[in-house]
Amino acid sequence: xxxxxxxxxxxxxxxxxxxxxxxxxxxxxxxxxxxxxxxxxxxxxxxxxxxxxxxxxxxxxxxxxxxxxxxxxxxxxxxxxxxxxxxxxxxxxxxxxxxxxxxxxxxxxxxxxxxxxxxxxxxxxxxxxxxxxxxxxxxxxxxxxxxxxxxxxxxxxxxxxxxxxxxxxxxxxxxxxxxxxxxxxxxxxxxxxxxxxxxxxxxxxxxxxxxxxxxxxxxxxxxxxxxxxxxxxxxxxxxxxxxxxxxxxxxxxxxxxxxxxxxxxxxxxxxxxxxxxxxxxxxxxxxxxxxxxxxxxxxxxxxxxxxxxxxxxxxxxxxxxxxxxxxxxxxxxxxxxxxxxxxxxxxxxxxxxxxxxxxxxxxxxxxxxxxxxxxxxxxxxxxxxxxxxxxxxxxxxxxxxxxxxxxxxxxxxxxxxxxxxxxxxxxxxxxxxxxxxxxxxxxxxxxxxxxxxxxxxxxxxxxxxxxxxxxxxxxxxxxxxxxxxxxxxxxxxxxxxxxxxxxxxxxxxxxxxxxxxxxxxxxxxxxxxxxxxxxxxxxxxxxxxxxxxxxxxxxxxxxxxxxxxxxxxxxxxxxxxxxxxxxxxxxxxxxxxxxxxxxxxxxxxxxxxxxxxxxxxxxxxxxxxxxxxxxxxxxxxxxxxxxxxxxxxxxxxxxxxxxxxxxxxxxxxxxxxxxxxxxxxxxxxxxxxxxxxxxxxxxxxxxxxxxxxxxxxxxxxxxxxxxxxxxxxxxxxxxxxxxxxxxxxxxxxxxxxxxxxxxxxxxxxxxxxxxxxxxxxxxxxxxxxxxxxxxxxxxxxxxxxxxxxxxxxxxxxxxxxxxxxxxxxxxxxxxxxxxxxxxxxxxxxxxxxxxxxxxxxxxxxxxxxxxxxxxxxxxxxxxxxxxxxxxxxxxxxxxxxxxxxxxxxxxxxxxxxxxxxxxxxxxxxxxxxxxxxxxxxxxxxxxxxxxxxxxxxxxxxxxxxxxxxxxxxxxxxxxxxxxxxxxxxxxxxxxxxxxxxxxxxxxxxxxxxxxxxxxxxxxxxxxxxxxxxxxxxxxxxxxxxxxxxxxxxxxxxxxxxxxxxxxxxxxxxxxxxxxxxxxxxxxxxxxxxxxxxxxxxxxxxxxxxxxxxxxxxxxxxxxx
Length: 1120
Fold this sequence. Notes:
Layout: H1 5-17, E1 41-43, H2 46-49, E2 77-80, E3 89-92, E4 100-106, E5 109-112, H3 114-117, E6 126-132, E7 141-146, E8 158-162, E9 168-170, E10 183-189, E11 198-203, H4 230-233, E12 238-243, E13 246-249, H5 251-254, E14 264-270, E15 279-284, E16 291-295, E17 301-303, H6 305-308, E18 312-313, E19 319-322, E20 331-334, H7 342-348, H8 354-362, E21 368-369, E22 373-377, E23 383-385, H9 387-390, E24 398-404, E25 413-418, H10 427-444, H11 450-455, E26 462-463, E27 465-469, E28 475-477, E29 487-488, E30 490-496, E31 505-510, E32 516-520, H12 522-525, E33 529-536, E34 548-553, E35 556-561, E36 565-566, E37 570-571, E38 576-581, E39 585-592, E40 597-605, E41 609-613, E42 619-620, E43 633-635, E44 669-672, E45 681-684, E46 693-697, E47 703-706, H13 709-713, E48 719-725, E49 734-739, E50 752-757, E51 763-765, E52 776-783, E53 792-799, E54 811-815, E55 821-823, H14 825-828, E56 837-844, E57 853-861, E58 864-868, E59 873-876, E60 885-886, E61 889-893, E62 902-906, E63 922-927, E64 936-943, E65 946-949, H15 953-959, ...
Parallel strand pairs: 18-21, 33-41
Antiparallel strand pairs: 1-32, 2-3, 3-4, 4-5, 6-7, 7-8, 8-9, 10-11, 11-12, 12-13, 14-15, 15-16, 16-17, 19-20, 20-22, 22-23, 24-25, 25-27, 26-29, 27-28, 30-31, 31-32, 33-38, 34-35, 34-39, 36-37, 39-40, 40-42, 43-75, 44-45, 45-46, 46-47, 48-49, 49-50, 50-51, 52-53, 53-54, 54-55, 56-57, 57-58, ...
Helix pairs in contact: 1-10
């Protein structure tokens, strides 16, 4: 649970000035009504099912939310058959009451046997629970985790050994499983593959979290920290090896962190890289990053989260791992606390500032964002984080996230528990009420008691979420259709087939509400099929934890692992219930046992339970390795390539309301044979105070850097655009470079420079000064537009320095044939004044009149075509005039082989929280809203007929004194549209730009300005596209596409675009482009690609080069 930093400060102050009184206020329990609608799940009545359990959490004098920040984290659920009668039983943990065990009597009826079984527990604060056969006798035991801010051994964990007669005996100390810190959960698995079950104990640190002063102590175990009070030390995470029934702490030697900055809330074990060894993912709350431990197969682990994930959660809570797209790779879902609705975001959220974000990045906490994460496994030891794309990023204050097939259609859905007993981050409470408490206490000397303060905190239960898998990496919110509309304060949840009807039911543990038991009605409401598997493992791992099942049918594969500890503080049933959709006969089913033995079954009828035994397996399974498969591209190592480096500058210091920085758009890139040796060379621009470089191509992908003296002299410029062309008509390639950077006060340096080639690749700066607009130059595109035999140039600008949203001026430079350029914009290209914030341009004959036209793309605007009539560039009205995007780049090619040029246009993608569409456009409003002489930008989203700012109240009032004086509450601001915040006069005088599409597209030219728009495949939309190459990659006569992009420098509340590592799209001839996975394409780039180009050597070999911000360029050879 993540406490708002401001709240933490307020609560700390309150504690210091008041006497704590005990509180015994009872919360009125929300009554559960019968669900009479025909939904996929039915919420059953406790009086009918017999599970009458409430995790009552009441603030008391010595134990309350002020003293223990995990006070409202709730309890867990475990499902398993404790008496081997074929019926799954249920165990629920309580924080302040007795834990309960319910025996399944059949017919969805349960009996409370907690007292007679002896499993109520003797510790005051139970959290997670796992059913596991610890002693290998074939009966499930119960391991209960305990925590709470209490003294002595009150939070030692408990192990209830199953006596086989519905009674249990507590023996945690005998197995060395009692010692604990503040334990949240545990997972039992065979990490060293010796046949018995080891344990990972997840502990949550109790140290204060309002400072980063504990950074750089990740390697120091909790018990070794100095100058930390004993009550805060506890015990860090532990990996315990099973040594003949005694669990030995091997954390240090195994490479497991156990620091006091480990705020673990979730642990999940899975074979993430397909090597048959279990890996471990640990989610951490607050500022510490998550841990991904990759099993080294020698008893040790290597922590690799930064190598795998492009970014992670900041308030990571529950976790599950499963294959969401049936590609055979295990994906990861982690919950956080971002609300879905705009109003709730504005009333309970306060996002991290950019400077704090960068500080944490610098202290090795990695890039973390407040949102759920869905890490799509790319199959090459990397994830693409796609929660925004998939529609599962925002589920409010979330705890458990479970990936399982809820409707048996063969696709795994996502269920999320949600809610908090008090809205601890409510902005109005903190900004007004909590401050009033302090003020009144100071003035009157009256000290309010804890109970009074807590009771004034808002309570706003939220419904749980159910997301139906659409089969295309997106999910639809099925909360209503599936029966989960009841507002709750839910925490732990487990699934299992409680009535043996072939679908998975749910048990949910709530705070201060009766637990929920949901019956799954898939057997009657859907025509989908299933297969159930009961696995009998070798002793002592009798329940075969760690087994993997692969089901092949109709060309797809369903992979499922047997690992009970999942979600949040909970444990799932051991019977594997696998939905298979409309499949009636499974082609093949392979079980891979924990010792790598395997057996395969074929032609299996659906809708039955099969029992399999490890002892029957004979063959050894060996993971498939790609080997030396020929890829479409291969990266060419080149140690001579130099790193581009950005200078340290924050646009947000000057433009506080923009969402992303414009100052980091380099490096520029240009391609051309500068020394006439038949090999095309490459220019890569420099960052500020960093000279550009020409890489001379000596063949076979070998590039030798050359830095002319003239380049060194001009290192004060930041190169953002470049082009090779023959400026002076001497038959060699000269170089024009444009500068940008968006740094206020540096406008004088935002100019174009021309370097003249002597024919041998030696360059000197031209003496004549080129016309300039002193704006952020984004593109230089050369073409003899007037057909007079010399090359003219379009110079496009992205923005006016420090004034985002105001259209900059652009230039059409007319060449006199000798390399002297004049500004011909107003005379020959007057319409360019409306080109917008240009990011890319290309000269292409779009109307087949043998004259190249100019096509530009811009942010918050439409692609624009300027037809060339031989004298002037005239804006063409086209169907593209209605397609408003955050366009980055454009290329032209004949994609459908019909003789005209089509367009490929790179956009920001749809892996963003805020999405624009034709019906719900986003808008950018630009004006001096508070009449103080400074231009501001307000971004809005359209909803219910109005445009609502996406900015937080604090952001807007921080920039506009007039708004601050209104003293708006957050809840009031959340309901106001932009025209309710500002006068009609101000609104009408504003510049308004809009977005109605996020996808990268192709625009198929149908002639006469008509284009057929087609979005490219999903993987392309995971991030922005900033570079495009059109080329027949596989020599089938069809034009294919190579793309790359990413953009990192957003405000933290908007996350960042980082989850596409390059795209190779093969054209089947019908304009259906198929994205190639990285193992096939060989084209893989993790960082920010700003430009992508193709070059060749004199032997005909073709290469792709990527200019990358803050990194070295990458070169790929195309394999013919």
